[in-house]
Design a protein that fits this description.
single chain, 385 residues, alpha/beta, Rossmann fold, four-stranded parallel beta sheet, 35% helix, 21% strand
């Protein structure tokens, strides 16, 4: 299996672990192939913008592709810990791959910054001491979407979700909040990320005549049931989860996506935000850096950007407690991440606590609408405004 190692910003492909260790070693496990490639490729792109040194120490990045496969993810993370002796792990890209490795990282007492989103990644907190993530919990995105539905007088919803931990976690939180707000869930249909059709699920959903359909999937698989709904004449509102928020989804879905809504980081519409918006500046900084080199910005790329920035903030603190490569350094780094407060990231504003290893509240979520194949700010939420 190939791995990529970045030392001082130079990318090379190596076949063994015979490279001299850098001062700080960051392990990265993401999905650059497989169903979640549209998430992992932008994340890998950002590594070309990663800091070469932090607090005067050189940084080495060891990168593996898990191919969106849980077994491969476990193998990769074990190798990062045992062979590459990493100080911290960034990734994985998806909820299923992340959940497959949380125990591995925990047992090794190696801090991990996941790029995936489902709440079980960081809960219960007493079992996730070493695990963090740079995305909003499911209840945060669900709250923004339910609020939007209430404003638009949606009374009934049917759900089409991927049959995996991401689909399950998001469906659960949405139904809980929707029920409290008087929105009735008529049915929940499931499909596999690898499916090429969801005809049976679509026909069942449409038979109930819901005011809205909520599609729960990550990356390009989100487009398939959406396109099918429109082709069969569905006229109600269509909502997508935050996992659909990338340019590849827009390309695959095409005109069928017109008028759809989704809760997402405001990073995709940073220039449309009011100037007072708390993380507008960092969002624009990220967008310009990314688009200047790679093309359309990606909310998934912003996750990697924020993970790296959090390391720039916390590694100097950890270095005071121990040297890279030691248990003392890893524990001090874990503690420093947990104490992150007020970081205005590209994706959101982060305030970590022992009970909240995401640190993102509703301030970091906007409701976007797809118009003419582009993202448009429809609504946003921020404390005090």
């Amino acid at each position: 299996m190939k791995k990529w190692t970045v030392v001082l910003g130079v990318l090379s492909v190596i076949s063994s672990a015979t490279v001299a260790l850098a001062d700080i070693t960051i392990g990265v496990n993401i999905s650059t192939t497989g169903p979640a490639a549209s998430l992992g490729i932008p994340q890998k792109n950002v590594l070309e913008l990663a800091p070469k040194t932090i607090a005067g120490q050189r940084v080495r990045y060891v990168i593996y592709d898990d191919a969106t496969d849980t077994t491969t993810a476990v193998q990769n993370v074990k190798r990062l810990i045992s062979d590459d002796k990493v100080d911290l792990i960034i990734g994985p890209s998806t909820t299923p791959t992340t959940l497959s490795v949380v125990d591995v990282a925990t047992e090794a007492k190696t801090p991990m910054l996941s790029l995936a989103s489902a709440s079980p990644i960081v809960s219960p907190p007493e079992k996730r001491k070493w695990i963090f993530k740079v995305t909003a919990n499911d209840e945060i995105t669900a709250a923004a979407m339910v609020n939007h539905m209430v404003k638009n007088k949606v009374k009934t919803v049917s759900i089409i979700a991927t049959d995996d931990p991401y689909g399950e976690a998001n469906t659960k939180e949405f139904m809980k909040l929707a029920g409290k707000s008087g929105i009735k869930t008529l049915s929940v249909e499931k499909f596999k990320k690898s499916d090429t059709s969801a005809t049976a699920q679509i026909l069942k959903v449409m038979s109930g005549r819901p005011d809205a359909v909520y599609i729960v999937a990550a990356g390009t698989p989100s487009a398939m049931p959406h396109v099918g709904l429109i082709e069969r004449g569905y006229k109600g509102r269509v909502y997508q989860s935050h996992g659909a928020a990338n340019s590849e989804f827009l390309k695959v879905g095409g005109k069928a996506l017109e008028g759809a809504f989704l809760p997402c980081s405001p990073v995709l519409v940073a220039e449309q935000l009011p100037k007072w918006f708390p993380n507008r500046s960092e969002s624009i900084k990220f967008a310009r850096a990314y688009e200047g080199k790679f093309g359309p910005r990606s909310t998934f790329a912003s996750h990697m950007w924020d993970a790296l920035r959090i390391l720039e903030l916390t590694i100097p603190k950890a270095l005071k407690a121990g040297k890279p490569g030691t248990p003392q350094f890893r524990e001090a780094l874990r503690n420093a991440i947990e104490e992150t407060k007020g970081y205005k990231g590209a994706y959101a504003v982060f305030n970590m606590t022992p009970a909240n290893h995401s640190g993102v509240d509703v301030t970091g979520i906007a409701m976007l609408k797809i118009e003419h194949g582009k993202w448009k700010l429809d609504d946003f939420y921020s404390r005090g405004k």
